[in-house]
Amino acid sequence: MLDQNRADARLPLYLQLRDQLAAQIRAQKWQPGQAIPSEAELSQSFQVAVGTVRRAIETLMSEGLVERTHGRGTFVRKARFDNSLFRFFRFESPDGRPLAPKSVIVSRKVIEAPRQAAEALHLKAHARVIELLRLRKVDGQPVLAENIYLCAQRFKALADKAPEDFGDLLYPLYERECGLIVASARETLTVETVTAAQARLLGLKEKTPVVVIERVAFASDGAPLEWRQSRGAASKFRYSAEIR
């Protein structure tokens, strides 16, 4: 039954249901990638018509919270970050084919959280974090340098994992090794000149302009899981948007 203490009676019934389903998703009643109950089950559980359930789910789909797989059901949507950086940076072969960078963990340390990392991850002063320095390479040449910070307590399974076993994608690793699922992220873009250390990593001349993409990644309950800064040459940067 719809929880009348939580429902806004001014809203249509399907939006009241949408709000309560969204709240259950945020509370991790169903994990990303997990199926939610069928329309018939939700109809019976909340004591509303199937048509109301269908409209509520369609609203959740339009908002990107769930997705429907034909013949299988409706699932809490897993955030897809595999190619998110490559909205901003273009890496191509000489004949114009898109190239997917490979990832290399250059270093991994457990350190006291720098101020920015502690603030982004909502950690107390002097908390410990895992600091990863990762390079993305195309044809063996470095194109992106990333500084990644994780709460050492929450990600302790990674503290002793061999860097060569991290793989190209970190978020599946977080889920597999630590049981932590990234559900959303917030990114901020700025431009700065590369430092001497970053220039050496990226094979750039000192003071070359670089684009910095700062990302905070969150769990479905809104808790920050990861803070990272990715840097790449501004000459490789692109931005496109469709405006209607």
Automatic annotation (TrEMBL):
Keyword terms of this UniProt record: DNA-binding, Transcription, Transcription regulation
PROSITE patterns: HTH_GNTR
Domain of life: Bacteria
One of the protein's GO biological processes: negative regulation of DNA-templated transcription
Keyword DNA-binding: yes
CDD domains: WHTH_GntR
MF GO annotations: DNA binding; DNA-binding transcription factor activity
Residue ranges of every copy of the HTH gntR-type domain listed in the record: 11-79
Entry protein name: Transcriptional regulator
